[in-house]
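In this section we walk through a basic example: taking a raw amino acid sequence and producing a predicted 3D structure, encoded as discrete structure tokens. The instruction is simple. Fold the sequence below.
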Amino acid sequence: MAGLEYISGFGNEFSSEDPRCPGSLPEGQNSPQVCPYGLYSEQLSGSAFTCPRPANKRSWLYRILPSVKHKPFTLVPCGDLTENWDEVEPDPNQLRWLPFTIPKS
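The resulting token sequence is shown next.
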């Protein structure tokens, strides 16, 4: 397997860029006001409130479309799942970007 490069180290931060789009990864910043190639920058973090700030792990993604442009959730048959999911109807849609309407009183 000639031509492979390995990344070594523990706790380091790494980056990768598609060779077909040189310059798509911003240098010296994570969230530029204007991303190259018209991309959208998004931070993905799974540990924002579960560990000390220096130990947070995160990923910066540069997407063609922002994640809020996803299609609405549709229910799929459960198949072999054994839990009773009928008690609560899941709603993983973007509530932050499409809030419920406030009724007028």
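Looking at the output, two observations stand out. The CA atoms of residues 31 and 78 lie 39 Å apart. The first strand starts at residue 40 and ends at 45. In the next section we compare this with other chains.
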